[in-house]
Amino acid sequence: MSAPLLLSNIPTVSDLYKDGQLQPAPTDSADASLPTPSSALNSKVSLIRASITTLATTSIVNAANNSLLGGGGVDGAIHSAAGYSLYEECKTLDGCDTGSAKITSGYALPCNYIIHAVGPVYHRAGRVSADYPAELLRSCYKTSLDLAAEKGGSIAFSCLSTGIYGYPSGEAAEVAGKEVRRWLEEDEKREGGGRLERVVFCCFEMKDVRAYTEWLPKIFPPTAKELPAGKPATEAGPGTGQSSEAVSEDTTTNQPSLKKPKAESEAVDEGWEPIEKPSETISDKTTDISEEGEKVEAPDLAGSDGEKVEKPEPRDVLEEAAVSGKVLPANTLGKDW
Hints:
With 337 residues, the protein is an alpha/beta fold. The chain has a single domain, classed as Leucine Aminopeptidase, subunit E, domain 1 (3-Layer(aba) Sandwich). It has a six-stranded mixed beta sheet with strand order 1-6-5-2-4-3, with helices on both faces. The two termini are 21 Å apart.
């Protein structure tokens, strides 16, 4: 496993604005008016592209299934890196309801705790009502933040439900960002508030990075002091069609670095520095990990950001496996985060 990535080396939203690597939302956006800029909030929120198994935060949030016994994607990577003791503890938890979360020790991971949050299967929850997927996802973030606050320190979120559970990355980033801001604001008002030092949004797939790069400036807009000299707040940013810089990790120094994507005619992912991956390796052709710890090949992705996944089996078969934790043959496994 690569060296742990310390919290002090993870840039905050405030840092990204000051470096000119996160652009303010355009003022002519059709969205509702932006919330009041707050340097205090912007200094408590981070965005990074990395494997969450490398983050030395107090807690990390796993995109788990209802069984809590491991699966593919980030869930499998976390179970593999943490070791078999995590599986043994999870067996004692009697699963977890969708929209909720449970906490365990971090075992061999650099974090102290793992919070296992079960996000919704998007179109299945949508059959209940149009708002139900967001309600369940919002509950995942709130419950995770409440559990993390009991331990204090910092928390890092993986991108919940945006893989085989089918939650669109943009909609998920909006729900996550708004719930985190609401929770932080409420926590500051309570007696003994300020329980969390930092909330980190940790992305692995490019589609999720792009979603957070678009939504964070709309939810955590910059103050005037956070903008680089000569860059007014009205400068066009994500969502305008112009290129914006994005977040990656410099694996030679294990320090966060930022890299501009190439022109639109070139592949976006080629403009990123490769990140060092944990010992279980998550390669360009993703290796999923079953409950038994055996590695099985996932289907090829149409681009390394995983935006298009071939699903040789019907959606309901994959959903059933994702929710129940059942391990499917190699040719039917997709990412479950």
